[in-house]
Amino acid sequence: xxxxxxxxxxxxxxxxxxxxxxxxxxxxxxxxxxxxxxxxxxxxxxxxxxxxxxxxxxxxxxxxxxxxxxxxxxxxxxxxxxxxxxxxxxxxxxxxxxxxxxxxxxxxxxxxxxxxxxxxxxxxxxxxxxxxxxxxxxxxxxxxxxxxxxxxxxxxxxxxxxxxxxxxxxxxxxxxxxxxxxxxxxxxxxxxxxxxxxxxxxxxxxxxxxxxxxxxxxxxxxxxxxxxxxxxxxxx
Length: 236
Ligand code: CA
What we know:
CATH class of the largest domain: Alpha Beta
CATH superfamily of the largest domain: Response regulator
Structural class: alpha/beta
Low-confidence stretches: 230-236
CATH architecture of the largest domain: 3-Layer(aba) Sandwich
Helix content: 40-55%
Strand content: 15-25%
CATH topology of the largest domain: Rossmann fold
Strand order of the largest sheet: 2-1-3-4-5
Number of domains: 2
Bound molecules: calcium ion
Order of helices and strands: EHEHEHEHEHEEEEHEHHEE
């Protein structure tokens, strides 16, 4: 079951959220202080963060930016909770990297619907994740963030790791460059689509040192993990 992290300094609201989310079947982690957010995110690996805008010490907006700039955390959906309803605040929240925005006082059914939508958006790649995925002789361990090919440890950069994780979760599925960008870099940062090719090339080089090339390039379409390589044009 997905864990939702509640970042809220007003205890009454935090308790209300905790109660309703647990009733809806989620696990919850509550944090009241902005400076505890990062360490708690790293420890509890939430599937989604409900982030209050007005926090003592550090604002929700600042936290949102910090989370989005952390390569390991930036794909976690963030819904900003705020008493501010003006359009310009909404825009600055979204441009700081929030995925969605709910104005206080909010209705619980509406909030639950927003949570579901945001979880569904990332579910294929980032929630309900298994500890280990294998494809042929490739083993990817999601908790340790390690990749092996047979007995060999493959050293990958964080971006290459996330690309492989996306591919190995859904082998044979073809991901377009845009889908790779969205899954690996998130919506909030502009990355040149060609950058995907650069990281795929690095990933391929690292993996192929110890076995056949299972990354299939489908020209002008995208990439997949596939062991039926005969008819395509995977060489680059
Ligand atoms: Ca507050």
